[in-house]
């Protein structure tokens, strides 16, 4: 249920969130050994099963050195936006490497994935356009649609037939279809080949946000498109983020020369903001290279994922059908999810409870994410704790 839009007072609105179990807490994290998944959360030691650092690159020595070296050379801040004097050699090199990595003509770096999606949708879809999106898309794609002023259409999760029906009856004009590649709260894949076929048939442009697929899935880690064997022309716009598998910060969009040039000209979240710190671009270049040089990182997180599923399913833990390192455990109610998360923390595991409005009401869950940085024993111990808490003997 939505939070009241016009609260009598902020205190009342906050009390309302509290009463419904929806008030969120920030916790202060400390990391003693940054290359492990061990953290201290408000002073309590635990293993972090919530980070998006799938490949363990956030603290990789080469990535850290690249960051420090570039900061010494260029300073910390970029000093200006990209169209003024903020666009530097590190950004330019990163964009070229991302274009090569994704097999596309050109790429453009944004300061965050959230901004990349806002900029993309508003730049490609004006007020007279139709924007279609999966109802479980990431919030940034949903907000991008709203900000664009286009007519918005949401289709039921991964329901290509429903989307095709909506596309068939739309008015003429630009049509943009938006989807996560791997859904961030469910870990499942979008049916990209069928989506691409529907878009081709109905003259719509498909944009895929592969924040959780890039670096992790596909034969060489190049994400959901590689997983499905899709050509760049079938998915004209590809969004990727650096804050997930690449362990740094920022995002990019890859596409044709003209599509990217449109973003340079039109994406307000690109034009009217300070450029990403060049040292972050340098660290990301190294992270990209390490992800290619050290394929064992991807193989390990996927092996840990399979091991987690095998152990958890064997003892009857209610896992969703996900083959990616995002492994939701569906519990339904807000209280059940919160209690399980608290109980796991008591036992030394941090697994966040995900509740509305991040996920639909009645689908609150624990969301486990696996990382190369986990020890085999971490996964086994987590499953034992989950079995103890969730499976009645
Ligand atoms: C994390 C995420 C984003 C936002 O990326 P940031 O760089 O963290 O702003 C966008 N889309 C998806 C699917 C994500 O998971």
- Counting DSSP H or I runs of 4 or more residues, the number of helices is 15
CATH topology of the largest domain: Aspartate Aminotransferase, domain 2
Spatially, the strands of the biggest sheet line up as 4-10-9-8-7-5-6
- Low-confidence spans: none
Quick overview:
With 393 residues, the chain is an alpha/beta fold.
Summarize the structure in words.
The chain is α/β, with parallel strands linked by helices. The chain folds into 2 domains: 22-51 and 295-391, Aspartate Aminotransferase, domain 1 (Alpha-Beta Complex); 61-293, 3-Layer(aba) Sandwich (Aspartate Aminotransferase, domain 2), CATH 3.40.640.10. Helices cover 42% and strands 16% of the residues. The protein has 15 helices and 14 strands. It has helices at 10-19, 61-74, 82-86, 89-102, 113-124, 139-148, 160-168, 192-202, 224-228, 257-266, 268-271, 278-293, 296-314, 334-346, 376-390; strands at 29-30, 38-41, 44-48, 106-110, 130-134, 151-155, 175-180, 205-209, 237-241, 251-255, 326-332, 349-350, 353-354, 364-369. The strands form 3 sheets. The protein has a 7-stranded mixed sheet with strand order 4-10-9-8-7-5-6, sandwiched between helices. Helix 6 links the parallel strand 5 (130-134) and strand 6 (151-155). The longest helix has 19 residues, at 296-314. It is globular. The two termini are 35 Å apart. The mean pLDDT is 95. The structure holds pyridoxal-5'-phosphate. Pyridoxal-5'-phosphate (PLP) is lined by residues 112-114, 117, 138, 140, 180, 184, 209, 211-212, 241, 243, 251.
